Amino acid sequence: QLHGCAMPGATSSTAPPPLLSSAGHGPSRCLAAPRKIACGFYHSVAISNSDASAGKSEAYSWGRNQHNVLGLHISQRRSLALSKDDARVPEKKAEETTYFDDQAEPRRVECMHSNVYEVACGVSHTIFLKKNAGESGGVVFASGLGMRGRLGCAERPANTEAEEHWCTHVEPELVRFKWDLGTRALRVVCGADHTLCYATDGRLYAWGANGTGQCGVGHSGSDASVFTPTPVLLPGGKAVACFAAGAMHSMAVLGARSEVWSWGCGRNGRLGHGSTEGCNNPLAIAALDAMGVTAVACGEAHSGAIDQEGRALLWGAGSGGRLGFLDQDDAMVPRFVSFDDIASQWGGRAVRISELSLGGFHSLFLEELPAGASGSRLWACGSGFATGAGQSEESQAYCLPRIVFPRAGEEVALRGAKIVQLAAGMFHNLALLETGTLLSWGVGARGRIGNGQEMDVNVVTPIGLVGFDLSRGPLVDPCEPVSSPELSLQAGPSKADSELSQLVCGSVHSMALTHGGELYVWGCNESGQLGLGADFTYVWKPQVLAIPRRKIRQIAAGYDHCLAITELSELWAWGKGTDGQLGFGQARSTSEPQRVTALSEVMTCAAGEVHSAAIARQGGRVQLWTWGNAESGKLGLGHQYMSGMNIEPAVVSFPAEASPSALGSEAAGPKKVPLALCLGSSHTMVLLGTPNAEGANELWTFGNGTYGKLGHGGWDNAYSPKQVYTRGMVPKAIACGAFHSLSLSQDDHVFVWGRSDMVCHDEDVDRPMKFGLLEGNPTVKHIVCGEMHSLVITKKGKVYGWGDNRSGQVGLGAGFPDVHVPDQVEFSEPVSLIATGCNHTIVQLANEETLAFGVQTLGRLGLQIRRPERIVFDARRVEAVWAGRGDLLLQLAKGPPKEAQAIADREAPDAASEGGQNRAVDKGGIHSHQLVTSFLMIQNMIQRQEETCTVARMAALEAELEGQLQGFLQAIRTLPEREKGLNLLESEFDQSLYNNLRFIKGLSAPTVDTTTEDPEFIRRFPRYKEILLVLQSQVNYLAVLSTCVSSTIEQEAFLRVVGRLLGTASERTQHLVLMLQRLMVSLEIETPGRALRDYFHPKTHSMALQVFSQHALSQVRAKDLVHLYMKADHKPRTGGEQHAAGGGGGGRTLLQAVIGASEGWTETFALTLDSFKEIIGEDNKKDDAEVGFAFARALDRLRDFLI
Fold it and tell me: Concatenated DSSP letters for 906-962?
C-alpha cells in the first residue's frame, strides 16, 4: 500500500477496489486503507473514533482557517481599513468581510457529524468522504475556496457571499457527480488545487485547477479549470490499481502489469518521461514498465514509487536533497533510493519500504520490519524541519535518508509503537500509530502542528488528539467490496451464476461464459487470443479472463481473435489483428481486451477467420457492421472492397426490398432489421426480420461463392448482401463452415447447401436443401459448423454429426475419418451446449459436466488429465473451474446509503398541498446519490432537472446543429467552383514545368508515337481484357507470377502489366496495390538463401521493390512527390544571395536553383565531385580547389533550397 500526503504539492495516494482477476492478470488487489489523516499547506485534518460506544468516526481539523478550509464555520465580521483618501470623506464607511478563526488545536467538524471515512487536503480546500458501515461507497463533501472548480461545483452556492474569492461559509458542500444512480465514491486524494476520486463504476474522476493538465481531461490552460467531476482520460480496458495527486501533476497505476501513467506539469522531470515536457493526457512511464509497481506518490515537484520488492524510486526536482541523492540534481527518470549505508548499522538487513509519502522539499519512507518485530522505523531525507531529523536551522538539508523515528532515548511507549499511516504536507507531517496516537512535526506557523502553539517542531512528537484507534475498529470497513462492484450488484450468490451460458471454439483455443458474466479461456495464446497478456503461450486449464468492471453477456471466437459484449452493450476485442479484424482503426494485434470504441449499443457479434461483424444500434437504427479482411467481398461493402482490409467497423447496406417500410409504404409492414449473423472463413450470413415477430425472417449472404455455399444458385461471389430464396423455409438460426452453410427453420428442420461431402450429397448444392438424413427425423434445437464438419443437437439432447472426422472432431471415434451420413454421437447425459472449431469440439451435458474431444495440442481441450496422444477420439472431462464459483460473489447493494437517503429526505418536497396534489419545491439539480424510492421523488427529480435537459433547450440545440449542417452543405455545394481555381493553377504549373525542361542538359522533348497497333493484338484484345480483369481482381495471381520472372525482358513486361492494371488513382486500385505489395513481400521473404540486404541490391532485382518504386513515381503520384521537388522557392533573398544563385531571387524552380548555384559557367549538377569534374570537362580554367569549392557551394545551395 502507499499512503501519501494530501497537500498543496505532497499528495495522497490510494488504491481502488480490486476488479475481476485471473491467473493471467495477477492476484486481486485489496483496497488500500482509507486515509484517516491528511496535511495541507497550513492546515491538518484527522479522523477519530474515540467515541467507540456510539460507533462514531468524526473529523477534527486545525491550522489556518482561511476560506473556511477547516469546515468549522467559526467566523466573525470585521471592518476593512479605509485608505487615506477614503478616510477624509465623512460619508465613506468601512466595508465588512468575514474572517474565519485559525485553530491551533484540533477542533471537531460538527457539521460532518459521524461516519467520516476518509479525508484529504489541498492548499485551500478540504475533502471529506462519508460512508456508512456495510455500504459499497459513500458521498463526497468539500470545504474551502471555491474558485477554479476546487469544490467540484460550477456555480457559487446560494449560501455564500457574492464575492470574487467565494468559499463555503456555512458548512462543507456536497460534491454532485453526474454519474448513474447507485454509483458512489470509494477513495479521494487532493493535489494543491485539484482532486481525484475513484468510484464504484470503476472510473477515476477529477475536478479543480487544470492550468498544466493535472486533471488529465485532454486540455489545459489558465481558463481550463474543471468545475464538475469529469472522468480522467485513462486508457480503456485497464483497471486502476492506485493513484496520487501532486501540486500540478497526477499519477495512476493501471492494469495487471502495474503500468504507471502520469500527466500534468513536467517541469524538473516530475512526470518521469525523460524530459521536462508536460502532457494533458495520461502517458505511460516507460522506465517503470514490468517493474511491478505497487504504489505511487506525488510531491510538490517530485514523484515516487515502490516496486514489488519493496524498493523505493524517486524522480523530479532534486534540490534540497528531497530525492535522497548526494548530487541533488533533477532526475528525469526514476532512480532507486539507497538505504544501505545506514542499514548496515542496524544489522545489515536490506531495507524494504512499505509506505512512501512526499512533501514539499522532503520525503518520508516507512520501513517494513521483519515478522515478529515490534515498533516501526521511519526514514526521511530533504530539507527543513519537516524531515524530523532534529536540525537547528530550517535550511539545513539531509541528502541521504536517515532514521528519524524512533530516536535514541525515545520513551518506551513510542519505541514499541507501530506507525500505520503517514501524511506529508508542504512543511509539516502527521503519522498515525495503531493505538490512535497522532505524531506531528515540522513548521508550526498558524497552528498547523496541532499542539496549541505556533512554534516549530524539529523532531517527531505526539500531540493531544487521540486519532483512529485500531483497537476500536479497523481502518477498512470489513464489508467493503473485494470484487468488481458491477458483478456484485445482485440479490445474493446464485448457483446459476456458475453455470455455463455459452461455449465457443477458435482454431486452437476455446472459451466458456457463465450466467454470472465470468469468462474462461484456454488453449494457444501465441497471437494473444486468450487475452491474458503476453506472458502466456499455452494455457492447458481454463483461466478467468477479466474485462475490468464489466459483466460479459456474449462472446465470439474467430481463427485467432475474440470478441465480447458486456452488459453495458460495449464491444471488446483482443487477439490477432493484422487484417484489421479487431476494429480498432489499426491493423495491430493485442494480447489484452480493448474496447471497440467505434460501436455502442451492440446487440450481437460474430467472428470469422480474419473478419468480424456486429449488429448495433447507432442513432436509433439497428444496423449491421463489418470489418477486417475484405477478400472476395465477405464484408458486404460493395465492389470497392473486393480485397484488402477495412480496419474500422463500416455499415453494410441492404437493398430496399429488405426493408418494406423504407419505401414509404407503411402498409408494406414493419421495417426489417438484422437479427442474427454468422461468419465463415470466406462468407457471411445474416438473418433479417422484425423483432418479436414470427414468419418474417429472411436470409441474406455475401462473400465467396465457391461450391454454392452462398445459396444463390451458382458459384459467383457476392460483394453486397443478396437474399437467399429459401423455397418456403423461414430460418431462425444459421451456421457457417469453410465450404458449406446450415440453417434451422422455425419448424425445427435443418437445411444445408455447399460442398458435396459437407452436406452428404453426390454433388455440390447451391441452394438450401432440406436435410432428411437424420435418423428418425428428430426435432433439432441447435446447429453448429466446424471448418469441414457439422453437428446438431435435438430437443431431447442427442447429438448428430457428419463431415470431416480425421481429427476426431465429430466425436465418432478413430474408425470414421469421413462421415458421409449423419451418425449419433453417444454421451451419458443429454447435451445442453456445444461448440466446435477446426479440429476440436466441446460439449456440456445436462448434469453440467463439460467434455471435449479432437486435437488436444496447445491445450485447446482444457482436459482435467492431460493425454499423451495428439488426438483424443473419446470425450474426456474438461477442468470445469467455473463450477461453484458463484459462492465467491459478494452482495454490495444493500439499499440506499443512509447518508444519501438522509440528504434526499431533507430535500424532499412536502407530500400534500391544495387539492391533494403533490408539489415539488427546491429547484436544485438532480443529485447523483438520490435513489428512486417513490413517485414523489421521481416527480421532484424531474422538476429539478438541469436547464440543459429541458425541451426548449434541446430544441435550441437542434436548431443550432441544423444551422451548422446547412453551412456544411453550402460549403460542399461550392466545392466545384473552388476546384476550378485549383485546376487552373495545375494547368499553369504544367506549362511552367514544360518551359523549364529546356534548361536540363541533354533532355529531348517528348514525342508522340504515331505507330499503329498490331492487327493481331486488336483481334485478341477482348481475350486479353478478360485476362487482365481477372489479374486485377485476383492480385495473388500477380504475386505468384512475380516469383517466376527472371530475365530483364520479363521484368519489364511484368512492370508494364502491373502499371496498366493498377496505375489509376482510385480507392479500389489503391487497395489492390497494397494487397499485391503484401503478398509479393511475403513470397520474397520466404525465398530460401536470400539475406535482407539482397532485396535492396540493384542486381538482385527485387520485384516487390520495383513495383513499389513504379507505383510511387507514377504519373498519378506526381502531385504528391514530383511537384514538391519542382516547387518554386518563394523565400526572399538578399542581393548577395541573388548574385550567388545566378540572379532572379524568389519564384525559381529547383532546377533553376541548382543551375544558378554554379555561377553560370556550367549548367550541370552532380552529387559526387568526380562526376562534377567529368561533366565540366577539361576545358575549364579553374584549379582543383576552385572546382571543389564550386561543387560544395552547389550542394549547400541545394541543401538550403530543400530546407
Answer: HHPPPS--GGG--------PPPTT----SHHHHHHHHHT--GGGSHHHHHHHHHHHH
Burial status of residue 765 (CB atoms within 10 A of its CB: 0-12, 13-18, 19 or more): buried
Q: Are 101 and 158 in contact (CB under 8 A)?
A: no
Nearest CA among 708, 5, 656 for reference residue 297: 5
Report the distance separating Cα 4 and Cα 355, nearest Å: 8
What 3-state DSSP class applies to 1188?
A: helix
Q: SS3 for 539?
A: strand
pLDDT at 1100: 62
Nearest CA-CA partner of 895 in 117, 112, 136: 136
In sign, the C-alpha dihedral spanning 497, 498, 501, 504 is positive
By the 8 A CB rule, do 543 and 591 touch?
A: no
Q: Residue 890: its pLDDT value, please?
A: 33
Helices (H), 686-738: none
Band of the pLDDT at 1001, cuts 50, 70, 90?
Answer: low
Which residues are 367's β-sheet partners?
A: 353, 377
Q: pTM for this one?
A: 0.46
How buried is residue 869: exposed, middle or buried, by Cβ count under 10 Å (0-12/13-18/19+)? exposed
CA distance 316 to 267: 8
Using CA atoms, how far residue 508 sits from 283, 561, 680, 737, in Å, is 35, 11, 16, 16
Closest CA to 584 of 530, 628, 616: 628
Cell of 478: 470489513
Distance CA 995, CA 1004 (A): 12
Whether 1152 contacts 999, CB under 8 Å: yes
- The rounded distance, in Å, linking the Cα atoms of 799 and 783 is 10
* End-to-end alpha carbon distance in the chain: 54
Residue 847 C-alpha from the chain's centroid = 40
- Give the pLDDT confidence score for residue 921 in this predicted structure: 32
Mean pLDDT, the chain, rounded, equals 80
Mean pLDDT of the region 478-507: 60
| Torsion of Cα atoms, 258 then 264 then 269 then 271, to 10° | 0
Between 1159 and 739, whose confidence is greater?
A: 739
Q: Which of 141, 105, 107 is nearest to 125 (CA)?
A: 141
Q: What are the helix (H) ranges across 639-725?
A: none
Number of residues assigned to the chain? 1203
**CA 780/CA 196 separation, integer angstroms:** 56
Q: How far apart are CA 541 and CA 1024, in angstroms?
A: 57
d(CA 915, CA 934): 20
Phi-psi category of 1142—alpha, beta or left, where left has phi over 0 and alpha has psi -120 to 50? left
Contact 1126, 1119 (CB under 8 A): no
Residue with cell 557551394: 1193
Residues 6+ apart with CB under 8 A from 517: 487, 497, 550, 551, 552, 553, 567
DSSP tally for the chain: helices H, then strands E: 18, 59
CB 515 within 8 A of CB 501: yes
Local structure of residue 758 (DSSP, 8 states): G
Residue 75 CB partners (closer than 8 Å, separation 6+): 68, 98, 99, 100, 101, 169
The answer to whether 449 and 428 are in contact (CB under 8 A) is yes
| Cα diameter, the chain | 116
Sign of CA dihedral 209, 215, 220, 226: negative
- How many angstroms separate the CA atoms of 1080 and 1099, rounded? 18
Confidence of residue 370 (pLDDT cuts 50, 70, 90): confident
* R_g over Cα of the chain: 37
Specify the 3-state DSSP secondary structure of 447. Answer: helix
Secondary structure element (H or E) that encloses residue 488, with its range: helix 485-488
The whole-number pLDDT of residue 946 equals: 58
